[in-house]
Design goal:
The protein is α+β, with helices and mostly antiparallel strands. Helix content is 38%, strand content 21%. It folds into 3 domains: 245 residues, Bira Bifunctional Protein, Domain 2 (BirA Bifunctional Protein, domain 2), CATH 3.30.930; 45 residues, no CATH class; 91 residues, Rossmann fold, CATH 3.40.50.800. A hairpin with a 7-residue loop joins β9 and β10. It binds adenosine monophosphate. Adenosine monophosphate binds next to β6, β10, β11 and α12.
Length: 420
């Protein structure tokens, strides 16, 4: 193993590619910032108990995929495998729910860790941008989040994604369905492990990707037929609000998610160009989570969109993001005096918000111009002793190749008006 190799299942974001990730994070955050969501940041690790209780002790995420460890001081911690439990924990700790302004709307962006079998679109370290609306039961809130995620993807230029929508019921109707599903599953030809899962968490079996299992599930009872009147009405209202907003979705009565805390509204964004790891984002309502981690009843809803898979989706659709130029002006000084003069000009340009860079290190003209080319700069300013003696610098248009002399005192204003 080389010292320079990133750990298995991880990769580095490196320029120029890394600019895409920044742009994706920005694009997902923009509609949230515009809709009353405040930024929250929580630690990269939490007490392991939080995830065990929150995400669910029978989920793959907690039993197989969590990076859990004991610290030198004996604390049992885990790298966060997802964002919701941490954000809710932080909101409860800061008593945000008691400030009288419910729902508390928060957004976040960060790294998450799951010990998964790595493949394209599935990593051990990945990043998500997420949103949580804590402390209100209102179908308009569920609709808002779905609409904002749709808006985020569309603003990036994505088109080939679909929204899958389902309701998982609540503590009234889900247990009845659970029983019915369990009875059905026990009659199937399933392996030991799957039967065990049917006992602990039967809904998860619906999510089994194996064709021989899926084939047996064709006649499985659907939660849809077991929803209580309150859940049915709630779900209908969410559907109507999203439809009225012009956001298309598909009802997916078998959609369950890999986390135990979901109730009622659940949804997933899938992209058809991604192969097996097609979920680019997902979320739903988690009315019971606060109580599961020891807090008061706080019905809430949220989502998390995967940044890595969103970038893959952009590539699959051939979308080129309009990224701002890294460097608009590149300065090439020839000689000591020119260094001082041009360095000052670069500083001035930067203060005006113009992206400017400088040829560092003692380089000849040829090497410096190569750097100017590679920088992607629209303009290069070159100055030698003779230019400065005449009170000018050479302004080179890197697209046309044209070069003109511009007064040392005029060059900044000239570039400002050109780059306008
Ligand atoms: P989840 O918390 O499992 O609902 O995941 C939400 C989103 O995060 C998914 O739709 C993916 O886009 C992304 N995601 C989850 N796990 C991974 C992973 N191992 N690698 C890359 N992206 C992931």
């Amino acid at each position: 193993m080389s010292t320079f190799q990133a750990p298995k299942g991880t990769y580095d974001l490196i320029p120029p590619e890394s600019a895409k990730y920044l742009a994706v994070r920005e694009a997902i955050a923009a509609p949230l910032r515009n809709s009353g969501y405040g930024y929250i940041e929580t630690p990269g690790f939490e007490n392991v108990e939080l995830f065990a209780r929150g995400v669910g002790e029978s989920t793959d995420i907690v039993t197989k995929e969590m990076y859990a460890f004991e610290t030198k001081g004996g604390d049992q911690l885990a790298l966060r495998p997802e964002g919701t439990a941490s954000v809710l924990r932080a909101a409860l700790e800061a008593n945000l729910h008691k400030l009288g302004n419910l729902p508390v709307k928060l957004w976040y962006s960060g790294s998450y860790y799951r010990y998964e079998r790595p493949q394209k679109g599935r990593y051990r370290h990945f990043s998500q941008v997420g949103a949580e609306a804590i402390g209100a039961e209102d179908p308009a809130l569920d609709a808002e989040l779905i609409i904002l995620a749709d808006q985020a993807y569309r603003s990036l230029g994505l088109r080939n994604f679909r929204i899958l929508l389902n309701s998982l019921g609540d503590k009234e109707c889900r247990p009845v369905y659970r029983e019915a599903l369990q009875t059905f599953l026990r009659g199937l030809d399933l392996d030991e492990e799957t039967l065990r899962r049917a006992d602990i968490n039967p809904l998860r079996v619906l999510d089994d990707k194996r064709p021989d299992v899926q084939k047996q599930l064709t006649d499985a009872p659907l939660l849809r037929d077991y929803l209580c009147d309150a859940c049915k009405a709630y779900h209908e209202e969410v559907r109507e609000l999203i439809t009225a907003a012009g956001v298309a979705f598909e009802d997916d009565p078998k959609l369950v998610r890999g986390l135990d805390y979901y109730t009622r509204t659940t949804f997933e964004f899938v992209h058809d160009g991604l192969g097996s790891q097609s979920a680019v984002g997902g979320g739903g309502r988690y009315d019971g989570l606060s109580e599961m981690i020891g807090g008061p009843a706080l019905p809430s809803v949220g989502w998390a969109l995967g940044v890595d898979r969103t970038v893959l989706a952009l590539e699959a659709e051939g979308v080129e993001l309009q990224l701002p130029a890294l460097t608009s002006v590149f300065a090439v000084p020839l000689g000591e005096e020119a260094r001082r003069v041009l360095f000052a000009k670069v500083t001035e340009l930067r203060k005006l918000g113009i992206a400017a860079d400088f040829s560092y290190g003692a380089k000849g003209l040829k090497g410096a111009m190569k750097n100017a080319n590679r920088s992607g700069a629209r303009y290069t300013i070159v100055a030698g002793e003779r230019d400065l003696a005449e009170g000018v610098v050479q302004l080179k248009d890197m697209e046309s190749g044209d070069q003109t002399a511009v007064g040392v005192n005029e060059i900044v204003a000239e570039l400002e008006s050109k780059l306008g």
